[in-house]
């Protein structure tokens, strides 16, 4: 551990996120480890703000705006990308191309769907993207993809505005007119209103249990419009989470640590990201593990000693990045299985990103 501030963490988080995480506390941890913490000013060239040892960010909202054509957001993202391109010596948490994938629900589901997790009793509930406003065409698309009633209709863009979290439960063909393309329709999996959030910080993960939607069955009822943030936060008390009397007798299956470990390993390898939240439900009856959402740099509410874990990750990333720079392609002396192969994960993510989505 050094006392002198020689290493710089350049970071960008929204004001809301810094307040939520109580970010000033992280300053103390940084100082203890000899790091200076500098917030990136995305309205200016980053060259004059550096040099940085590592860049840590949650740029989801700005990337989403840039994709939608906002010129200011595009300029900000270009500044970050140019800096990264000109400074291969700087470690990045997390690669922007992986974050882009998570911004698109269809893309992230497809990506994990093709990961081989099915063999381990883990699945992505059947899903399809709806891009048309034509009712008949949408019915056909849903049928062809095997999306059953009831299904959840989610905006295709997963972050970036409050609209991203306005979801709909569709119970029958009549309800399909309530879908607002572009959106992803995903078969609803009954899971006794228990959601498991796996929070990842590099190789560490921690599981928290959250309220979730109650069991639903096909019916002639009208569409339910809801905001995901009202349902599955730690303090949510939505009436949509209260099990019907007949369902209270159903047994709830507890998650197995080894299964969660497997999910973490595969998703991490596929996406090449270190800061993620994976939302899992366990299907009533079958006991299959359904991945229903993956979030970039989530809230980590309930994660013990998050800032120390974040610092451990930063140290590991810098170390690994330096090793990769010295001997690219040869990490034999440092590889400890899944745990330290960051460079490979990042380049796998880069290669896959342009081909799979
Ligand atoms: N396929 C599904 N089967 C069962 N429940 C689901 C499914 N998809 C979503 N849900 C329910 O809806 C909630 C919100 O869904 P989802 O996580 O996809 O939305 P989100 O806006 O991305 O949420 P977050 O705030 O976690 O990012 C989940 O917590 C869960 O209760
Ligand atoms: O920690 P959990 O409960 O998983 O919640 C996260 C949500 O799942 C994300 O959707 C939030 O991200 P956005 O607000 O960027 O969409 C994310 O927002 P944040 O960046 O403000 O923390 C979290 O609220
Ligand atoms: Mg989400």
From TrEMBL:
Region (Disordered): 329-357
GO biological process, any: inositol trisphosphate metabolic process
InterPro entries: ATP-grasp, Inositol_tetrakis-P_1-kinase, InsP(3)kin_ATP-grasp, ITPK1_N
Comp. bias (Polar residues): 347-357
Co-factor requirement: Mg(2+)
Residues binding ATP: 105, 154, 186-197, 212
UniProt-listed Pfam families: Ins134_P3_kin (PF05770), Ins134_P3_kin_N (PF17927)
GO molecular function, one term: inositol-1,3,4-trisphosphate 6-kinase activity
Cofactor note text: Binds 2 magnesium ions per subunit.
Assigned keywords, A-Z: ATP-binding, Isomerase, Kinase, Magnesium, Metal-binding, Nucleotide-binding, Transferase
Domain spans labelled ATP-grasp: 114-323
Positions with a binding annotation for Mg(2+) 1: 279, 293
The protein's Enzyme Commission number: 2.7.1.134
Stated family: Belongs to the ITPK1 family.
Function: Kinase that can phosphorylate various inositol polyphosphate such as Ins(3,4,5,6)P4 or Ins(1,3,4)P3.
Quaternary structure annotation from Swiss-Prot or TrEMBL: Monomer.
Name assigned to this protein: Inositol-tetrakisphosphate 1-kinase
Originating species: Diploptera punctata (Pacific beetle cockroach)
